[in-house]
Structure formats: C-alpha cells, structure tokens
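Handout, section B. The chain below has 184 residues.
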Amino acid sequence: MYCPQCGQQQVTDSLRFCSRCGFPLEGVLQLLGSGGALPVYLQPTGPREMSARRKGVRQGAALFLAGVVLVPLLGVLNAFTHGPGLLDILVPLAAIIFFLGGVIRMLFAAVFEEGAPRPHQMMTTSYAPQPVSQLGMHAPASLPPAQHPAPAWRPRPNTAEIRQPPSVTENTTRLLDKDDRGNR
C-alpha cells in the first residue's frame, strides 16, 4: 500500500500512520477494504443490551438502597422487641452486607467488568464498482504508486571541489617572511 499524501510505500498494511509523513492510514485501510465504498455509520435501531459494567453498578446501587430502607426498619423492629434476640445480630450484619456490599459491588463493576462495546455497524454506499480482474475474481485493492517523486535529501557535496581553508599560522608566517627580507 502507498501513502496517498507522500507516495511512500508502506512496509505492512497494518500500519496506522505513514512512516514518512505521519498521515493517518486507518481511513484509507477501511476505504480499500470496502472496495472503494465510503462508510456510512448507522445508529442501532433495536434495543441495546446492557453491558456487564452497567449491570454491576446497578446491582450495587440497588443493594445500597435496599440497605437504606431495611437497616432502619430492622433497627425499629429491634427496639420494639424486648430482650436479646436474633435482631440484635441481624441489624449490624444487614448494615455491613447492604452498605459495604453495595459499595464494593459498584467498585468491582466499575473497575473490572467490561463496558458496552462500541458500535461498528457500517453501511457502505459505493461510488464505483469494485475492480474485477480478467479471471472474474475481485482484484486486490491497493493504491497505485505516486506519480510525483518524493522529495529526496539534498545530494552529498563533492569534497574535492571545496577549497581548503587557510592555515591559522599561514598569515603569521608570511609576516615573518617579510620581516626577514627587510632585515637583510
């Protein structure tokens, strides 16, 4: 596959971005995979199934709210019964199970359970028929190579043409040579 922006041939078709210019290739892959048909995303029309995460959070909230109602009710019933009984142990046990259990269930669902899958329902409207080879089978979809050459690095300079820089001591040596000629 070739990048549609710079014409760079990609090493593999699983790249998400062009290795030369960084152009996002994910949409190009979808376009090529559908044989040139533009994708149209549709909203699901039927009832959607609730995700495991949402179910777990709802269960935890229901357990917590049941505790809000049942623990005070058990406390009032315990106040009207005289003497030690089953309700003395049941009230704190119900508070722990409902309140703590509800919060733990919501946290577990929020952290560990899967959310709703993202909808990937796609309807394609083609603007051109899929390419068909002479054998009657569908030809593999790929872009042709770029018609313009990709910009190359500047050529390496020929170092034989470069003039050697003068020596740092050359000027001083010339001055000393002039001085010697003047003293003779």
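Note. The beta strands are 37-41, 122-126. Compare this with the example in section A.
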